[in-house]
From TrEMBL:
Listed name of the protein: Membrane associated rhomboid family serine protease
Gene3D superfamilies reported in the protein's UniProt record: Rhomboid-like (1.20.1540.10)
Signal peptide residues on this chain, from the entry's feature table: none
Gene Ontology molecular function terms on file: serine-type endopeptidase activity
Domain Peptidase S54 rhomboid, residue spans: 129-266
InterPro entries, per database record: Peptidase_S54_rhomboid_dom (IPR022764), Rhomboid-like_sf (IPR035952), Rhomboid_protease_S54 (IPR050925)
UniProt lineage: Bacteria, Bacillati, Actinomycetota, Actinomycetes, Kitasatosporales
Length: 308
């Protein structure tokens, strides 16, 4: 007399009869739960567990590997969209440009800073507590008919960001790269505040110079042939000197220095459990140094008072 066959069902779908086991946990799985494996099939839970146990590739500085420079593309898109907004609302430039100390006259014109200021004049810039200008100015550019370059200001910066970002972002990873970009922009704005607080400055070039510094640091860290890299840096430094005649060299130099400091911290942090702590700590120290310098300068400009 034949024995009665035992009916086996999927552990995730008990109502479905099945006869295939997961090669990892040996539980029965139905066709909907089967996932191709090197040998046989695995259930979804084992596939997820296997993915967690696989060591994820990292960049030299500890960031996640990313073949597509998404952050670079997003930054370019943001800069272009802001520029289009400037074309529609030109007053955006005056409202968000990097200005350390200025006066808005009763006639709506902009005047050089004096303290105390005459009646009818109102402070504008960081001396009026507009600290956001330290970063917003880095996403603005000259209007089509403004300054020496006009529309080529945004075009040149975006071309440089496109070329450098596609090289540096994969070296660092997205989070490290974004931190580098923002801290470079901040460093450029703070140096403008310290040296030329009455200048109204716009442009992503401070951040771009910071990325250029990171390109040099990372190339040396990786050990590539430095011939082409050195030629690039020579051209970048030459532009820093030449641009002093027509642009804000303070913003360029500040971005270059801040970007170099951040890149050095990222590239040479110990490759063990302390790496993240060292990198975050270095960025934090840089932010504190820049913040203290900015507050001290604004305090000096306002006669000892710091606007809130």
């Amino acid at each position: 007399m034949d024995s009665e066959s035992t009916v086996t069902t999927c552990y995730r779908h008990p109502q479905v009869e099945c006869h295939v086991r997961c090669t990892r946990c040996e539980r029965y799985i139905c066709p909907d739960c089967m996932r191709e494996a090197a040998v046989g099939h695995q259930c979804p839970a084992c596939v997820r567990e296997g993915a967690r146990s696989v060591r994820q590739a990292r960049t030299l500085v500890g960031g996640r590997v990313s073949a597509v420079p998404v952050v670079t593309y997003v930054l370019i898109a943001v800069n272009v969209l802001v520029y289009l907004a400037e074309l529609v609302r030109p007053e955006i430039v005056d409202r968000f440009a990097m200005v350390g100390a200025g006066l808005l006259g009763p006639d709506g014109e902009h005047y050089l800073w004096v303290d105390p200021h005459p009646a009818g004049f109102t402070p504008e810039g960081l001396v009026d507590g507009e600290w956001y200008r330290l970063l917003t100015g880095a996403f603005l550019h000259l209007p089509p008919t403004g300054g020496t370059f006009g529309v080529f200001h945004v075009v040149m910066n975006m071309v440089a960001l496109w070329n450098l970002g596609r090289l540096v972002e994969p070296m660092l990873g997205r989070v490290h790269y974004l931190a580098l970009y923002l801290l470079s922009a901040l460093g450029g704005s703070v140096l403008v505040l310290l040296i030329a607080p009455e200048d109204a400055v716009v442009g992503a070039s401070g951040a771009v110079f910071g990325i250029g510094a990171a390109y040099y640091v990372m190339a040396r860290r990786i050990g590539v042939d430095m011939g082409q890299v050195n030629r690039f840096m020579a051209g970048l430094l030459l532009w820093l000197v030449v641009s002093a005649v027509v642009t804000s060299w303070e913003g360029h130099l500040g971005g270059l220095l801040a970007g170099g400091v951040v890149a050095l911290a990222f590239a040479y942090a110990p490759r063990d459990g302390r790496r993240t702590l060292v990198q975050v700590g270095a960025c934090g120290v840089l932010v504190v140094v820049l913040a203290v310098a900015a507050v001290a300068k604004v305090s000096a400009l306002t006669g000892g008072g710091v606007p809130q």
